Amino acid sequence: RMTELFEGLLASLIILSGASSTLRVLGEVSDFPGSTAGRAAGIKALFELGSARAEILLCAEGGMDSIRTAVRKWASEDFDSSLQRSAELLDGLCEALSRQSQ
Predict the structure, then answer these.
(1) Confidence band (pLDDT; 50, 70, 90) for 53?
(2) In 3-state terms, what secondary structure has residue 101?
(3) Which pLDDT value is given to residue 6?
(4) First-to-last CA distance in the chain?
(5) pLDDT at residue 101, rounded to an integer
(6) DSSP assignment of the chain
(7) pTM exceeding the 0.85 threshold for the entire prediction
(8) How many CB atoms are located within 10 Å of the residue 37 CB?
(9) Dihedral of CA 50/79/21/2: which sign?
């Protein structure tokens, strides 16, 4: 499926370039067809990788607040159920990691 392909590609980008770079790419594709599916896949990949390797989120440029801000913005602009679900999961993970690191 196309969503699984997007997710795998974006997971590779996250590992190679980091969460912040991936968020920048996802932010720049807003005018392209399929941007919602791409963002949903990217958010899901960030959640899954961040669940397994918290340092991916903890070391993001601008901290986890920058991740949460971007994801919340996209979730408020797009009502795709897959994007919404992934955004809620990633936001919750970032919140839990923030509490643990205090």
Answers:
(1) very high
(2) coil
(3) 87
(4) 40
(5) 82
(6) -HHHHHHHHHHHHHHHH-HHHHHHHHHHTTTSTTHHHHHHHHHHHHHHHHHH-THHHHTSTTHHHHHHHHHHHHHHH---HHHHHHHHHHHHHHHHHHHHT-
(7) yes
(8) 16
(9) positive
